[in-house]
């Protein structure tokens, strides 16, 4: 969270800002020797998140389920689903969702909520059906209860470390998603009041539902249907499809197609929600000025629905009151998602493409970033910083820092164990996944290096053009009416400025760029830096139609300013 002083208070305070891990890592890993202390960390995070945090895998899964539901593919036939059809559907659904999100921000939130209700309701229905089956309904209880709930239920014929670590990583992929609310904190209503309790409630509900669902699978699906005989390589199986096959086994094909349709709807909801949140984080990355066309990606634009409402309104509507969305950030998210689909297209079997993308996402976004954040939490707790976080923080979790230690050790183990070759009968061999076992860990562990290369490239670009980037982010805060004593972000104004660097000091800019910034003060080209005080009189008219703050302009130093966000 950005820290600043509020008039009348001695200590700086933070106001919730969108971005999730980006904000955490920038706070936990600054470099005081740099002109922009956070920029190196930002570059490393930006490359991982921009390229890897996308929905390519889920879009391919959606294509597979659509083909199954429509009867164009039968998984029991032994044939490979059409690669062109699956990838085409994947790109089409990504395009459709991005277009709808850019059409209306409010509509996107309403659809998010609707899918949340549908998916939670679906899980509850499955739990009730499993209990009914175990009680004798639908031809139950069958052999599943007798075979699954025994003393040897946890026995397995897989003992190699690599298979265990990769399996646990994929399990985390299923349970992941708790980080989504942190990505859109600036758009939450009264985040200090509502966010903590509802986030904890959502996590507890998710854990409870997932545990009940796993028990439901054990009540209906016999483990012998999933675990192959010793020495054989297991094949992929969709647990939800097996679940409904056992419940309604009279017409196997109809049950499979119906279940595929339900899964496709669930995947569509996942695509919808994650597109909404991922675009906000990529917009936050662009606000730092490190991406091509950053200024345009960082800006929110009026939505077509907002423009239509203003035209249809009988009363005048100010520009700042028109609904906005990060249109260019949605475009960036769409581009990176489609790019990964294209890069993975040489794999003939789209089922293996899905497996490869899920493994890559799990290794980089879940394990690598998770380990990085855990180390940062320990660093902040054990190291004295200028913010005195340990003395100022209001929330003190129980058993701290045990949570960060356990999670950091677990993710570090999975990162390292992935470099151990899988056993001869492992489901992670190339014959099953479609790619060599070492591809995912090598690509994943090198992801932070991409960010360092990008950072060095940015320094070289500054040296080449003789200018250096100066980024100013002015957050407009207002007192939160629902939470006395707290503030909420209403808008943010960004400045991207390329200041001239003196030729005689060009080389030193790489080592002590902050010293150059001091020497540039008083030169012919200077940047007026405004305070970020919530009582700044220049910001008083923002909510009353002050258009000057929202209009981009250029000055001789190559500066651009624009209202980036405006929240209701």
Automatic annotation (TrEMBL):
Database matches in InterPro entries:
AA/rel_permease1, AminoAcid_Transporter
Top-level taxon in the UniProt lineage: Eukaryota
TM ranges are 44-64, 84-103, 115-134, 198-220, 258-278, 290-308, 329-348, 360-378, 398-420, 435-458
What keywords is this UniProt entry annotated with?
Membrane, Transmembrane, Transmembrane helix
- Keyword Transmembrane helix in the entry? The reply is yes
Q: What is its main location?
A: membrane
Q: Where is the composition biased (Basic and acidic residues)?
A: 525-541
Where does the protein end up? Answer: Membrane
- Tell me the segments the record calls region Disordered: 525-545
Q: Which GO terms describe its molecular function?
A: L-amino acid transmembrane transporter activity
A cellular component term from Gene Ontology for this protein is:
membrane
Membrane topology per the entry is:
Multi-pass membrane protein
Name of the protein described by the UniProt record: Uncharacterized protein
What are the top taxonomic ranks of the organism?
A: Eukaryota, Fungi, Dikarya, Ascomycota, Pezizomycotina
